[in-house]
Amino acid sequence: MSFVRMIFFYFCIYSFLGWIIEGLFNLSTRGKFIKPNFLILPLKPMYGIAAVLLIILKDLVPFWLFLIGCFIVPSFVEYLTAYLLFHSFHLKYWDYSKLPYNLSGYVCLRFSIYWVFLSLALVYVVHPFISLFYTQIAWFWSYFFPIMLLLFFMDFCLTIRNNRHLHI
């Protein structure tokens, strides 16, 4: 159970950091902090999922294979997220169709290369601090974990219910 708590902690932290990164990206490119969010909570689960997968992958494969994973994992998670959002709810939060080497407008080579550098920074620079932080607050998280899990589950269910009319 402690492994699940730890992984969910990382998922929440990196989903929140993804929300911040997207907000700052919008601020720098559009001049305002836009919150196009599927969930009510300030979380972008695709960032959390990709981060957790990369953190696990790092210790399982040689570096050269991990480097390839830094390209494939976030790109696949981004593609799957965009595909599911569009085909389930007719929501399209990003569109790379005007950029070269894109796949259905869901992913493109330029951003996949960005993911490699962000993934390396995440795993080798950010994650050691987050991991250390987790060891310091694991006792607290063990109490907060069920609350956060319930909040995330309720948010997800409410969001699905509220967006049902869009396509489901």
UniProtKB/TrEMBL annotation:
<feature type="transmembrane region" description="Helical">
    <location>
        <begin position="37"/>
        <end position="57"/>
    </location>
</feature>
<feature type="transmembrane region" description="Helical">
    <location>
        <begin position="63"/>
        <end position="86"/>
    </location>
</feature>
<feature type="transmembrane region" description="Helical">
    <location>
        <begin position="107"/>
        <end position="126"/>
    </location>
</feature>
<dbReference type="Pfam" id="PF06541">
    <property type="entry name" value="ABC_trans_CmpB"/>
</dbReference>
<feature type="transmembrane region" description="Helical">
    <location>
        <begin position="138"/>
        <end position="158"/>
    </location>
</feature>
<keyword id="KW-0472">Membrane</keyword>
<dbReference type="InterPro" id="IPR010540">
    <property type="entry name" value="CmpB_TMEM229"/>
</dbReference>
<feature type="transmembrane region" description="Helical">
    <location>
        <begin position="6"/>
        <end position="25"/>
    </location>
</feature>
<keyword id="KW-0812">Transmembrane</keyword>
<keyword id="KW-1133">Transmembrane helix</keyword>
<protein>
    <submittedName>
        <fullName>ABC transporter permease</fullName>
    </submittedName>
</protein>
